Amino acid sequence: MTNRKEVAKLAGVSEATVSRVLNGIGPIKESTRQRVQEAARQLNYELNAVASSFARGRSGNLGVVVPHVPKVHLFSTYYFSELLGGIGDAVHAKGYGLLLLFRDPSVTYDYVSLYRTQRVDACIILGSSAIPSETEAIVRLAEEDLPYCVMDQRFDHPRLNIVAADHERGSYDAVKHLIGQGCRRIGFLNGAPQYSNSWDRMTGYRKALIEAGIEPDESLIYEGNYSRTSGRMAASSVYANLERLDAIFVGNDRMAIGLMQGLRELGCRMPEDLKIFAYDNSDAASFTEPPLSTVKVPFYEMGRLAADRLLDLLANKDQGNPVINEKLLTDLVIRRSTGS
Amino acid sequence: MTNRKEVAKLAGVSEATVSRVLNGIGPIKESTRQRVQEAARQLNYELNAVASSFARGRSGNLGVVVPHVPKVHLFSTYYFSELLGGIGDAVHAKGYGLLLLFRDPSVTYDYVSLYRTQRVDACIILGSSAIPSETEAIVRLAEEDLPYCVMDQRFDHPRLNIVAADHERGSYDAVKHLIGQGCRRIGFLNGAPQYSNSWDRMTGYRKALIEAGIEPDESLIYEGNYSRTSGRMAASSVYANLERLDAIFVGNDRMAIGLMQGLRELGCRMPEDLKIFAYDNSDAASFTEPPLSTVKVPFYEMGRLAADRLLDLLANKDQGNPVINEKLLTDLVIRRSTGS
């Protein structure tokens, strides 16, 4: 039986190029593509991706597990779309496929079976949380030494593969900026507590206050679930405390946008009556009125880094699976929602 | 060798449930999952997805081909993220995987090889255009009777599989609304001409003007490329004609947002000096100041419909591949950018 090596030799290209042409993975120069196809025809060689993957024990796909929540348009959220963009670019550059797998967040997901059934060679887990059954499922991936990476979620367990952003530092910086603007009474609209993100933001928020000699006031801390609706719903409680607030720090832009809409309807002027500092630096943060000061999170770079690290591991299997543990820094973007 | 049927019988579930559990496709009740895994263990049965797909000649994946453009964060565009959301929900409901495939838009893509190499069972093509080599590649899919669907792009060829929106009608409705508001001198910032979308919008724009007895004025027609930057770049030309314009119709929200930013910097007040009607009804359209009147396109529903139709075809192969030809209607969403 003809093999890939012979096709590569006849076409005068590398074996990788033969695979790329016959698997339809671009970009390939048109002339190269024709030469490879002609060589494959002459040698009566047709690559069957599934058959050859089976022989190699590889699928050629990087899996990306995302939560499936009915009615939530996941890809329209900045967080997921930017992470996926970074992962997609890495996958494109290395000729892999990106297999999106949807999970029901209320059900324990059996990550290991994705590998056992050879649907993926490695996987990235988005929207993970710290509930015990999820932690257990992730730990099992580590114990079986499978190539995986959890995105932006910490666990109470050493040596798990994680690429994250430094949300404690980002939050600390944001609150410190507000204090520098003369704010003393700073509220916090946080997201849901099952994400380590939310805890890290709380830690950063408290640290900045305490460092400035300000006692954190529990009655000024609110909880939403990172959706715009939850921000809007918080508006009446925030408005009721308006006399006791100089500013509010909000866990993401979506909640901040909802909160601003709700507050505006109640007659609150921003930043005059209340300064707002948001989080993410999504596109929308620059479109709002006033535009939002916000913590810029390098989601795209995080996705790209996680995928690059995993695909490198796959290419260098003899080096084992060293632990991936990366924490990227955030930046402040200052706009009119915090004053001048 | 043990087969799936025996596992299903021992576990007291359907064969489909066995596949779902062993392929890690949720949602599955925890107790069911454990029962199936226990049965598989007892019978020494382990499903190898690739091996079994090979036997069936199926990958279990729906392919989605998307253009890869460096530095453009594709998933952050409303158009792609909503289409993908609809496709993702259909795929999730039917237990398929969604294989994202990135193509270089400047290179002819060999769609047929995706099937030959069994990477996908069917595919949806996003961001297609009417250039001749692309048309040829799509026609080849039709000639080989492969299950595929092109999203929101028409070709000069009968009987190709397409799910689209009625952009001629959407544009006609938008311009007619402006005329109803007393506008006579209505400009048009259109997108790039390789998309049938752009031509359809032009047809609708002209039709509404001519029907109202207004001669279309070529000097008030501008061209961008659907990016925010291209909208911003058009601002100075539009501003130069401000005295001759009552309103401008813009081919998508992103360009409209860029145009508004550019015009505001030049001192133009909207809607007082110029009314703006945009297109898409992305999230951002409601955040801008003023919020944008816009044509609402059911992208999510279009993606869902295309995927559902293809997955139905796969499930009923004996019925052949009837032509898919759907055109969904748009709606007008009226906000402050067009006046009251």
From TrEMBL, chains A, B:
InterPro entries: HTH_LacI, LacI/GalR-like_sensor, Lambda_DNA-bd_dom_sf, Peripla_BP_I. PROSITE patterns: HTH_LACI_2. One of its GO terms (molecular function) is transcription cis-regulatory region binding. Residues 2-56 form the HTH lacI-type domain. The keyword DNA-binding applies. Pfam families: LacI, Peripla_BP_3. Keywords: DNA-binding, Transcription, Transcription regulation. SMART domains: HTH_LACI. The keyword Transcription applies. PANTHER family: HTH-TYPE TRANSCRIPTIONAL REGULATOR GALS, LACI-RELATED TRANSCRIPTIONAL REPRESSOR. This is LacI family transcriptional regulator.
